Amino acid sequence: MSLTLEGITLTYPDGDGRLTALDQVDLHVPVGTTTAVIGPSGSGKSSLLAVAATLVTPDDGTVTVDGTPTGEMTRGELTDLRRRRIGIVFQQPNLLPALTAAEQLQVMATRNRRKALELLDAVGLADQAGRRPHQLSGGQRQRVNIARALMNEPAVLLVDEPTSALDHERGAAIIDLITTLTRAQRTATVLVTHDRSHLTAADAVVTIHDGRLRPA
Ligand SMILES: Nc1ncnc2c1ncn2[C@@H]1O[C@H](COP(=O)(O)OP(=O)(O)OP(=O)(O)O)[C@@H](O)[C@H]1O
């Protein structure tokens, strides 16, 4: 259950020309490991996650999820792959205000309460399952967000700046949680972060500048 990007180039229209957001990017994330990606604003981090999530088709290169190359897949097959094999954690938790923590997880394709409670336990919220978002702290909401992304037992977990709304201590706890769950759930995790102090928790660190990836 690994993630491999090979020779990924992505350009966007830019006036009369094209802007190269990703330039021949190669990245291999083995099962059960977390790769942190660090880079300045505009360097291509969000583009990298969007391509890895198969939400954006690159101009060139191959994304392989769980051993399956995605380049030849139809839109329907890609939607199915995303739903079943890819978990995404955005910066802001985007929880539905009316639902309890357990119900946020059960909204996922698997309407499985036992699994939801297991995952809430894994993120340290076993006793908060009946609470709605406004009854949770910012850190607790992000934990629900992470648990929700794991509901379908994804092969790949893509995490975009998960600590941007949290103080340092809560941010560090969230990063530890992500790397622990990555090992336990055997996902291949890509973690985009601005905070260099988080990098010690990752198994590998790469930097991105102007769309080019380098080992840190
Ligand atoms: N939809 C788009 N159309 C045109 N250009 C885009 C588009 N999305 C991103 N870009 C450009 O591609 C480059 C990479 O952007 P990207 O959002 O991937 O960087 P980032 O590292 O995630 O930045 P940030 O940390 O600010 O979110 C930037 O120059 C950006 O302006």
What does this structure look like?
By secondary structure, the chain is of the alpha/beta class. It has one domain: Rossmann fold (3-Layer(aba) Sandwich), CATH 3.40.50. The protein has six helices and ten strands; from the N terminus they run βββαββαβαααβαβββ. It has helices spanning 45-52, 75-85, 101-106, 113-122, 138-149, 168-185, and strands at residues 3-14, 17-29, 33-38, 60-65, 68-69, 86-89, 156-160, 188-192, 204-209, 212-215. The strands form two sheets. A six-stranded mixed beta sheet has the order 6-7-8-3-9-10. It has a four-stranded antiparallel beta sheet with strand order 2-1-4-5. A hairpin with a 2-residue loop joins strand 4 and strand 5 (68-69). The mean pLDDT is 91. It binds adenosine-5'-triphosphate.
What order do the helices and strands follow? EEEHEEHEHHHEHEEE
The share of residues in extended strands comes to 25-35%
Give the neighbour order of strands across the main sheet: 6-7-8-3-9-10
Helix content: 25-40%
The end-to-end distance, rounded to whole angstroms, is 24 Å
Task: Count helical runs.
Answer: 6
The CATH class, by name, is: Alpha Beta
Would you count the extended β strands for me? 10
CATH architecture type = 3-Layer(aba) Sandwich
The CATH superfamily is known as P-loop containing nucleotide triphosphate hydrolases
Bound molecules: adenosine-5'-triphosphate
What's the average pLDDT? 91
Unreliable stretches, pLDDT < 50, 5 or more residues? none
Main sheet summary:
6 strands, mixed
Give me the CATH fold name. Rossmann fold
Question: What is Rg?
Answer: 17 Å
Class by helix and strand content?
alpha/beta
